[in-house]
């Protein structure tokens, strides 16, 4: 009976260890892409595209402002066509019939010209309006670069934290394996009656629980950091 209990404990421990190894294997084999690749991903993000679209619209507004002087000039032209006619009656005497005369000719009239109308307030303020529009473009460009630099700093912190967590993960796994083995030994000795000290089993279990909690904490922080980097850069880092 004792032999069966020992075998069951060993099988259970091996199963737990294999499952745990499968979970951490992806993290241990993970290789982070070069940080420049992640920077480039941020540069191609939708937020940067939004700033680019806004700059494009403001540049079009600048072109419109520079061409606004064309509003001061207007052209006009007209064309007319008609027939000029004249009817006349002549009476040269009672003994003579009345003479009816008609004369007409087709005529065309053309007219064309230009009108110059200059609002002095707009004319003198033209340079200021153009400069204000140029400043809007520079403001958007600066805002885009500030956002990009801020995201780069955040990414650098996450990248360094991920590297640190990957290093800590290996140590946490080794600590878990050690405490789990110590607990299994203490558990076997307690079941088989080889130890009359229940405190040893309790201490071993406490160390195992602490190792598990530490391991899960590192995995959680590591997973969160990787997810944030993936969202920020639009780059797939880890297969799930």
Structural write-up:
- The protein is of the alpha+beta class and 240 residues long.
- The protein has two domains: 2-67 and 122-233; 72-116, no CATH class.
- 69% of the residues lie in helices and 15% in strands.
- It is built from five helices and two strands.
- A two-stranded antiparallel sheet has the order 1-2.
- The chain is rod-shaped, with a radius of gyration of 45 Å.
Supply the number of structural domains: 2
Overall pLDDT metric:
81
Oligomeric state: single chain
Helix content: 55-70%
What is Rg? 45 Å
Q: Walk across the major sheet and give the strand order.
A: 1-2
Number of strands: 2
Question: Which descriptor suits the 3D outline?
Answer: rod-shaped
Strand fraction band?
Answer: 15-25%
Give the topology string: H per helix, E per strand. HHHEEHH
Largest sheet: 2 strands, antiparallel
Q: Segments where pLDDT lies below 50 for 5+ residues?
A: 1-12
Kindly, what is the distance between the CA atoms of the first and last residues, rounded to a whole number of angstroms? 43 Å
Structural class determined from secondary elements: alpha+beta
How many separate helices? Answer: 5
